[in-house]
TrEMBL record:
Pfam families: Glycos_transf_2. It comes from Lysinibacillus zambalensis. SUPFAM superfamilies: Nucleotide-diphospho-sugar transferases (SSF53448), TPR-like (SSF48452). Gene3D superfamilies: Spore Coat Polysaccharide Biosynthesis Protein SpsA, Chain A, Tetratricopeptide repeat domain. Its EC number is 2.4.-.-. Keywords: Glycosyltransferase, Transferase. This is Glycosyltransferase family 2 protein. GO terms for molecular function: glycosyltransferase activity. Residues 5-110 form the Glycosyltransferase 2-like domain. It is an enzyme of class 2 (transferase).
Length: 361
């Protein structure tokens, strides 16, 4: 069985750090906590789990802090988490099994990162990240913000998931770091350009976001997944600016990088739906349901392959007075969100219409 060091960077995480550490304390052999300036009870809570607590002066650079955290590890493998991450019970069992069976020639293990959940508790969006790495490989973190771990060698994709369950978020932290970098004259990498654009969009600075998304795409150095996401983000900017023409062209632009993604199909469906072009909208929503995504796709938003296209098809077929088809799609949407008020309202509506039709016949 391999030995594992947990390495984390934290600051003012008293609301969540105990929950995180409780979920992994029996899975790892060592816990290293790097505190970047907590003024709350974070350290006191951490002391219930480990005495390996280190101070690191915050220098507005996440990769620097994470690399320092990795330097404190002493075990064969390093596992990293954020304070608002949790291993749910099912994933704890999977982690135990992996620890017992992992071959030491594996250099890095990826895990799903569950980012959001629907009202039924089902995962609605997720991505994959390398979470467990061999210490002797000395893999490095890169990037001041939205840092990433550069790995290589023999890689393994696991079915373990880390669940992101934040209680709060510093909405201005990342954009302020990026603005400081820009003001200092330090050039942004293509990846940082993309993430800075995301921050600008989140802060409703749409014109600036457009500039940085276009700069990112023009570099032709972006990862294909980020290129596709940049196209969708451009569409969002144009939607906020009420520029329907460029909204559409941005969605279609994503086709330059890969086959249509379900999200692109749903966006196109909505574009036609708004114009009451019902058959065109139906075509695209149906495509969202039949397109096969690649296994272990790095970014997945299950909304676009489950309840959303079915609910929109329900509306579209209702417009065409094809009530049985509309009801069928509503029922499929209900299979994902059985307690959704809109879907339950639709069920009552179609029960009434279809019962009347049956009485007439």
């Amino acid at each position: 069985m391999v030995s594992i060091s947990l390495c984390m960077i934290v600051k003012n995480e008293e609301d969540v750090i105990g929950r995180c550490l409780a979920s992994v304390k029996g899975l790892v052999d060592e816990i290293n906590i790097i505190d970047t300036g907590s003024t709350d009870n974070t350290k006191q809570i951490v002391k219930q789990f480990t005495d390996r607590i280190y101070d690191f002066e915050w220098i507005q650079h996440f990769a620097a802090a994470r690399n320092f955290s990795f330097q404190q590890a002493t075990k064969e493998y390093i596992f990293w988490l954020d304070a608002d991450d949790v291993l749910l019970e099912e994933d704890q069992e999977k982690f135990k099994a992996l620890k017992e069976s992992l071959s030491t020639d594996i250099d890095a293990v990826s895990m799903n990162y569950n980012l959001s959940f629907d009202l039924e508790g089902n995962v609605s969006s997720l991505l994959r990240r390398y979470r467990l790495v061999r210490r002797d490989k000395k893999f490095q973190w890169i990037g001041a913000v939205h840092e990433y771990l550069e790995v290589g060698g023999k890689l393994l994709d696991s079915d373990i998931a880390v669940s992101h369950l934040p209680l709060s978020h510093d909405h201005n932290r990342n954009i302020n770091i990026y603005k400081q970098l820009v003001e200092s004259g330090e050039p942004l990498s293509p990846r940082d350009t993309f993430y800075y654009a995301n921050e600008l969009l989140d802060h409703e600075q749409f014109e600036d976001a457009l500039f940085y998304y276009e700069t990112f795409l023009a570099s032709k150095l972006g990862w294909v997944e980020d290129n596709i996401r940049a196209c969708f983000k451009l569409a969002d900017c144009y939607s906020h600016l009420n520029d329907k023409e460029n909204n559409l062209s941005s969605i279609l632009r994503s086709f330059e990088y890969d086959i249509p993604r379900p999200e692109a199909c749903c966006r196109l469906g909505f574009h036609f739906m708004e114009q009451a072009k019902n058959y065109e909208a139906i075509f695209w929503y149906e495509q969202a349901l039949v397109i096969q995504q690649k296994p272990n796709t790095p970014f997945q938003n299950k909304t676009f392959t489950t309840w959303l296209p079915h609910l929109q098809l329900c509306v579209l077929f209702d417009r065409l007075q094809q009530y049985e088809l509309a009801n069928a799609h509503n029922e499929l949407a209900r299979s994902y969100l059985p307690n959704d008020e809109k879907i339950l309202h639709n069920k009552t509506y179609f029960d009434r219409i279809l019962n009347k039709d049956n009485e007439k016949s």
